[in-house]
Amino acid sequence: MNLLGRIDPGDPVVRTALATLLQATAVILVAALVAGTALRRRAAARHNLWLVALVWILLSPAVAPLIDGVVPTLAVVILPDPSQRTIATANTAVAIGGPKPGRGAPAAKPALAPSDSPAGADPAESTQEPTKATAEGATSPGADLVLSAPGGAEPVANRRSNNVVGGLFVLWAAGLLIRLGRIVAGACQVSALTRSARELDPARYHATLASAREALGVVTLPPILTSARAVGPVALGLLRPRIVLPEGLAESVTAAVLRDVLVHEGAHALRRDPWVGLLQRLAAALFWPHPLVHYLNGQLTRAREEVCDNHVLRCDDACSYARALLALTERYHPFRESRAGLGLLWGRWTLADRVAGLLDPGRVQVTRTTVGARIALAAALAATGVAAASIRFAPPARAVEPGASNPVAVTVAVAATAPARPRAGVWWLEGVVVDEQGQPVAGAIVRPPAAADRTGVSGGTTADDGTFTLTLSGRHRNLYGLVAETKGGERVGLTPGDAPLTYLTRNPIRIVLKPTRPLTVRVKDRDGAPIAGAAVEAVEYGYQTQGETGPDGTAMLRVAADARIRWVIGQKTGDGFDYFENYQPTRPSEYPPLPPELSLTLDGALPLRIKAVDSEGRPLAGVKMSPSLIQRTAKVAPVTAAFAATSWVTTDASGVAVFDRFPKDVGGCGFDVRSEAHLCLRSPTSERDGPTDLTVRLLRRTRLSGTVRFPDGRPAPNIHVRVEGTLPHTSGADSLARTGDDGTYALEVRPESVYIVAVEDETWAARSRTGIIVREDQPQAGLDFTLGRGTLLQGQVTEGADPSKPAAGANLALVEEGPLLPKGFRLGVRNERLTRLTAADPQGRYRFRVGPGQYTLRVGAAASLKFEVKDEPEVVRNLPLKTSPNRTYFTVVVVEKSPEGDRTVPRAAVARLVEGGGRIGPTPADDQGRIRLVRQPGNLLYVRGDGGRLSGLTPVPETAETVTVAVAPAARISGRVVDTDGKPQARKRVVVLLNFDSDFARSHRYEEVARTDEQGRFSYQGVPAGTRGEVSAFHEKDGRTTGARTVVPFRVDEPDQVEVPDLVVPPSGPANEPVRVGSVGVKVTE
């Protein structure tokens, strides 16, 4: 006992115990959070989660020593030394790492906690030099370590804390021994129960045993015994699992009930659950004072029982199984804990709760989780445990100055953290830039795409740890992506995914820098002569890269490796406009890598000038304009020219922007307009053969302002205020502001509109301000808001009325309906509107916080729900998507098989082919190669992946929930289109028809459109081996198809390149002029 009485709080044993308890607490709390939210209805995943938490807790005493020196220290807690407490009348505070008062200099004023300072004491200033001291782990620069050096204090030895620590150790050891004794007693009970048991007659219950084996998917069941000692059905045995039934149970229940009991207990035995039970008992013994460990054991036991119940539900319906449990409960009372095995009836889980779980339609009845899910759960808890273990507990500091009579009492030293950076702007995007090895990249530039409006954008250069913060103004409703690049542009990275970045984006953005790819673009005129000085740009929505042709008409571009380029645009004032389409189908769904070299032809331009003026007719300089959509007759689809930075033209001092670049076949197009101080009321539009001089009128921005306050009248800072005009914008906000420290906000909006102004926040809400008519040069102030908690609107979006089929990722629009608009503003709608957007989580759940008003909740055209919000704290509105009564869904998973195993194919294009012709899609799968489709038996799935390198076919299943499509290397069909003189025909439309059945009338067919390049060549990749088909080229006259076409059939036997004979078309001539060619298998149809 003397030894135990000398244990002090700084002892390594105490520090290890504190570190272990901290880890256990953190891991269990995180596990409880995940289990109670994302995994509430997924018993198998919850069981894995709690099992990982249990294993981590048992290993936690060894974690901290193992990671010491490997993982940085998150914080250092200096334990107090109660045996050397001081009673002080005056203390002097000294901050280590900061300026120290020299001898004779006045010291800092004392810092006393109220509990340490005598009542009414007036601390006196001291000129005594502070006592020197050191503390383990507290010497890093910036650490805030406070030392109290008492002056004239008398040390008082206090060994009570040592005795308390020793007493606690004795108490813990006694509890440990008792718990270990119970484990030994349980082992004895198992032995006695086994000795008293006899084998169940297998011949008598042959059919029941066969049914249980089939339900468990095994050839043999563990030995099944009966014993009078058993108080209920149990599974026991570590090395040799057995099932023990109470004597007489098999004879007194129906075959179905007996089968359910055997399946449940057999699942325990086959899963080796008795080993988990032993680990639980060891954890309960070691951590018996910790209530969260007992909570963990309870949750793990419940999840284990639910998983075994799921085994039963695979062979029996929930109602029958619930009745079986009720019958067994009436016969055998549930027991709180079995020392002799794992029982079917567990007293800590009420029968009502268990039956409610069985009957829950949202219950996920899987019995095993995927390897990926297990790894993810283990990684999450391991990260939590390592973070908790990186908080060190250091022993108390001791005075080291020789002759110092007054010891130093050290409290807590926490690792220094950088102060929060002040924020500017209205919203921010944060993230990290790394290289391909995952290492952070410092000094990289992060910016919006080149064509985006950069007004009010600041920041974006990465710090030493690769992190960045990009600040944006309220004029930006969204960005289609971010671009990160090193100085010089040798390495470029793009934000992943297609979804735009908005002020609602919460997750940090991760951008990976990769070396760029070269692209050579040659620009020539209609006679083939090179054009110098032409602007060339490779364009996708979230990224653009540009260059200019030299004297030889060639431009060299550097293209990001991950770019999904849609177009390459070439243009020059006076010479023309052309674009390369980096896709083949008329409805493109994927964009293959660009060829290393391509050509563009600028074949003349018509004059077009647009003048910008204000409301008084005065010219406006500095206004930027760009054509929005441009369609050339020889192209598959229009190009969104406004996403090209080189398409934007700025008005000169006379307010004129010159667009002398569009060929005659372009016809009319609309224009986008940007201005720093003005807004366009109606966008200009050019017309084919229309005027060549246009005028666009702009209005000055008008200011709206007000103050947002908390309920007690205090200013409310950092609150978003949104405004939306007469017609809702697809991005959900016309302008956005954020309140300052004084609660004020200001918005600059387009005049001649009616607005709704609303507060948007996750915690606060207010009634929206409606009916705000804005006129030019008439600013409006006093649009104030008083915040309240508002109403939490939440619910679930499901496919039909089945809550077990959540519509994950569904895009929801919450439209607030304002009053009737004045007559002059009813342009397509009658009421004011403000739209809030969100997306459903993986469980289909959504949430908004709103003030009182009339609302319509929509998911596209699939569902709509109108309701009123008053002052309720919460409103729940579930939204079932409209489906036909017989419509069901199934999941497609696209994989590529290899000797190393199946590899999912991300972004594969999946098309459903209708028997007899027709198709739906193609639709791209997600990044995991998965897509959910409507089940239509009789359809055939045609899948292309990796840019057409892979392809595969499979029929739509009749009933299966998931179908796996194995794709394999595919063939490429290629050929040429030439005229009757053998001259290659550029930019000709070629139709590729794939026929996957022998009977053409009932076959599944797929048709795709390709375009020939400058050498008259075309190609289509993604043809499965064994496919028959044909390629055809239409005849044209004066740039228009005549209806006649040349057809060449083909057959693919191996996944190689198939070169078809030339498709010969007339250079020009009457609509139905026949074409005579000598190639075998070539025909002309009309």
Automatic annotation (TrEMBL):
Domain Peptidase M56: 151-354
Record keyword Transmembrane helix present: yes
An annotated Gene Ontology molecular function: carbohydrate binding
Low complexity bias (residue ranges): 102-124
CDD domains in the cross-refs: M56_BlaR1_MecR1_like (cd07341)
TM spans (from-to): 20-39, 51-79
Keywords: Membrane, Transmembrane, Transmembrane helix
Region described as Disordered: 98-146, 1065-1086
Protein name per the record: M56 family metallopeptidase
Native source species: Singulisphaera sp. Ch08
